[in-house]
Amino acid sequence: MEILELPIEFEFNGQRNTIYPSLIVWNNELTLVDTGYINFLPLIENEIIKRGYEMKYLKNIIITHYDDDHIGSLHDFKKKYPWINIIASEIESSYISGEMKSERLVQAEELLENMPPEEIAFGKWFIKQLKELKPIAIDQKVHDGDMILHNECRVVATPGHTSGHISLYFPKLNSVITGDAAANENHELVIANPHFCLNMDNAKHSLRKIQNLQADTYYCYHGGKITL
């Protein structure tokens, strides 16, 4: 088994940005962790194919949490590759499937009410982005401590950024896929997007939790991997 990061470059507000979904390779079986923004499917496909893999071997998609830059292309992946098994925490599943209004949308609507005039346009745009996310059912709901992917991966509950956020620990590789529980900032693990965290105390605890795993490598969605 190995973990590959897939750097996806894009432009936002005139600036170049990069996110780093992860690809887990186990024999001929591929598992993608998070799917980028809406319409990012071709970008992610291209990165996978560039590495010599065929999309027909994509078996699973794991979603760390409900945010538009993590689930944006999930619906497109499931539509194009209907055999894919979609995995998420039980808490996040209710938002991804549309059974419950997402925490992020509730937060965005509340923030809009008190936004400075110069930020209102962005706030409205962000709410529109969230409302355009198409709901999709989760095939496998997981909890803290569950072993998945042939018992090679342990689910680690890392709430804070969202209530049901999960990270992934691979004991044999001594590696962690952090999602937004941590970001790589100047080669240090820090809380990702703290101003968007739904619970800062939980986010701090979750960061310590994955740091205490003392992994060799942390694969951060924002900032890329860190090898310690």
Automatic annotation (TrEMBL):
Name of one Pfam family that matches: Lactamase_B
GO MF annotation terms: hydrolase activity
Keywords linked to the UniProt accession: Hydrolase
Enzyme Commission identifier(s): 3.-.-.-
Enzyme class: hydrolase
Domain Metallo-beta-lactamase: 19-222
Listed InterPro entries: Metallo-B-lactamas, NDM-1-like, RibonucZ/Hydroxyglut_hydro
PANTHER family linked to this entry: METALLO-BETA-LACTAMASE DOMAIN-CONTAINING, METALLO-BETA-LACTAMASE SUPERFAMILY PROTEIN
Protein name: Putative metallo-hydrolase YflN
